[in-house]
Specification:
This protein has ten helices and 13 strands. It is α/β, with parallel strands linked by helices.
């Protein structure tokens, strides 16, 4: 079987790599089509072919508005090229431009989509758009039973939905925690509840907060409130920096809003043997409860 995996915006290189490698080990011929990763080195292909044919020019532009403007021209060309590929299955991980993709996604071959964010934050309120998009796919993959329930209620045909739990990302960092460090890992976005994490830490006299990730929101107010109780390691964390943060943490926290199905940052923490405290949203509570890997609040 020839499978083409596509992550046009290169949102999740580690996940893409693990899935492509696993399919190759199972005997499939696998191509991963994506964009250049802007924040560091991606994993080396293992048994699959890698092609970075999305956003070849805009990926190297630092100015955000200019980059997004050029992408609007690059995207339709790259998506049409993707859809013309010969494959038994085309599996999309993310839709980088839903407003364009709803018109572009036409294919005679089976189409699969993984709904990592059940309804993406930027366009999630456009229900008609997403109902049309979901109808373009023969199968829609979610990572939790709650994800299945949410998309069924949204109107996705139950027979099109498949639950495939997201595995942990295994690692074995040397333990170097002090028994009081709370880790808030991952890209810092509004829905991730960093103010809640800070409030909880400040309520515990001996606790300290380690924030490790690339900020997408202003942090001046939180930094002022946290003072010396918070350490900020801002920016994209490579493998070594992430391992260091995981090794120094006592517990990881994920006070997320209900906008996603599963969290890669959570599964990296659990894969490193770190207990987690999560809000009961999306599939976060399912995995923590099922494996007794922390607390659901």
């Amino acid at each position: 079987m020839h499978v083409v995996l596509a992550d046009p915006p290169a949102f999740t290189p580690p996940y893409d790599h693990e899935l492509a490698s696993a399919l190759a080990r199972a005997g499939a011929e696998v191509e991963l089509v994506t964009a250049p990763f802007r924040f560091g080195a991606r994993p080396r292909p293992a048994g699959y072919r890698l092609e970075e044919s999305f956003y070849r020019r805009s990926a190297h532009i630092e100015r955000r508005l200019l980059r997004l403007g050029l992408r609007a021209f690059e995207h339709p060309v790259a998506m049409r090229r993707l859809l013309r590929r010969s494959a038994d299955v085309l599996h999309l991980q993310w839709l980088a431009a839903p407003e364009l993709d709803v018109a572009l996604l036409r294919s005679s071959r089976p189409l699969v989509f993984t709904a990592h964010d059940l309804l993406p934050r930027r366009t999630g309120r456009r229900t008609r758009l997403w109902k049309r998009l979901f109808n373009r796919f023969d199968r829609v993959v979610v990572h939790s039973e709650r994800g299945r329930e949410a998309l069924t209620a949204f109107g996705v045909a139950p027979e099109a939905l498949r639950v495939i739990p997201h595995p942990v990302f295994r690692s074995a960092p040397d333990r170097a925690d002090d028994g009081r460090t709370v880790l808030a890992p991952g890209v810092i976005r509004p829905y991730k509840g960093l103010p809640d994490a800070l409030e909880a830490v400040l309520a515990l006299p001996e606790a300290r907060l380690l924030v490790a990730g690339n900020p997408r929101v202003p942090l001046d107010e939180l930094r002022a409130r946290g003072g010396t109780r918070v350490e900020w390691r801002l920016g994209y964390l490579g493998a070594a920096e992430l391992e260091r943060a995981l090794s120094e943490a006592t517990v990881a926290v994920f006070p997320y809003a209900d906008e996603l199905d599963q969290s890669g940052a959570l599964l990296q923490a659990l894969g490193a043997g770190l207990p987690a405290v999560v809000y009961d949203v999306g599939g976060l509570g399912e995995v923590v409860s099922r494996f007794e890997a922390g607390r659901v609040v």
